[in-house]
């Protein structure tokens, strides 16, 4: 009887072979020029004289899909403006629970809160797609914002909108039952559908929906099945169709009314 094959050593050449790294993105760490800055929505109202100090320090940074852009608690070094791609803001507990706080799109920005208070990053950010951001060191950006009234007002309006959005989501979590929270989320994620109703396209995984509304994946699965039986949701190849969005909105409003007694 032949002897059993020897187990491969963890120090074999195959195990020692380094993992392939993705090729660097073509514009990684290149200067973000004056014209580039002027095309970013935050900076469009300003002329070359105002933007010149920022253009001297602004750099492009690129991220591949799935790459962590920053972690909560990281030092506040840059304010970043999204030129391409989609990013997700998440909060993670020490026990490993993850909650999706927001998604960022071209024209958005992140890092402004840490730049203002000088503390670590308030949440983690992950790239959903290949992304390109213009990064500006916190100190020059804050100098620009504080010395330029229009920039200060724009920044304050953005922060005010962020606070209002967080207040609305906290209210949902505090007072609405799971079905009403899911209905509110689907309405926010959806867009008008040709022929009537609304559609969430592409459809979101159940674990992602659960992470957004503070529940478990299996609860979302059961609730979506109940909505489908009620004629309020229909999963198709094109996405999750909401044929009667008015009924879903009425459920959300009824949930708020019930919380008031």
TrEMBL record:
GO terms for molecular function: DNA binding; DNA-binding transcription factor activity. Residues 1-30 are annotated as: Disordered. GO terms for cellular component: cytosol. Keywords: DNA-binding, Transcription, Transcription regulation. Residues 176-246 form the HTH crp-type domain. Residues 42-141 form the Cyclic nucleotide-binding domain. It comes from the Bacteria. The keyword Transferase does not apply. The keyword Metal-binding does not apply. InterPro entries: cNMP-bd_dom, cNMP-bd_dom_sf, Env_Response_Regulators, HTH_CRP, RmlC-like_jellyroll, WH-like_DNA-bd_sf, WH_DNA-bd_sf. Gene3D superfamilies: Jelly Rolls, Winged helix-like DNA-binding domain superfamily/Winged helix DNA-binding domain. This is CRP-like cAMP-binding protein. It comes from Muricoccus pecuniae.
């Amino acid at each position: 009887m032949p002897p059993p094959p020897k187990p491969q050593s963890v120090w074999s050449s195959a195990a020692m072979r380094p993992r392939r790294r993705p090729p660097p993105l073509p514009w990684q760490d290149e200067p973000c020029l004056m014209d580039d800055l002027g095309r970013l929505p935050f900076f469009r109202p300003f002329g070359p004289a105002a933007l010149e100090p920022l253009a001297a320090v602004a750099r492009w940074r690129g991220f591949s899909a799935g790459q962590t852009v920053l972690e909560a608690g990281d030092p506040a070094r840059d304010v970043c403006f999204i030129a391409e791609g989609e990013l997700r803001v998440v909060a993670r507990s020490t026990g490993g629970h993850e909650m999706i706080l927001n998604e960022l799109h071209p024209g958005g920005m992140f890092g402004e809160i840490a730049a203002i208070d000088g503390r670590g990053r308030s949440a983690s950010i992950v790239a959903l797609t290949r992304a390109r951001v213009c990064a500006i060191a916190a100190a020059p950006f804050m100098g620009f914002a504080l010395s330029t009234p229009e920039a200060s007002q724009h920044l304050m309006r953005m922060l005010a909108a962020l606070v209002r959005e967080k207040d609305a989501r906290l209210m949902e979590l505090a007072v609405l039952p799971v079905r009403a929270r899911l209905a509110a989320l689907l309405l926010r994620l959806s867009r008008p559908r040709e022929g009537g109703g609304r559609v969430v396209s592409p459809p979101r995984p159940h674990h992602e929906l659960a992470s957004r509304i503070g529940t478990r994946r299996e609860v979302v699965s059961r609730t979506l099945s109940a909505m489908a039986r009620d004629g309020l949701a229909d999963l198709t190849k094109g996405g999750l169709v909401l044929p009667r969005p008015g009924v879903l909105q009425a459920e959300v409003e009824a949930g708020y009314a019930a919380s008031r007694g």
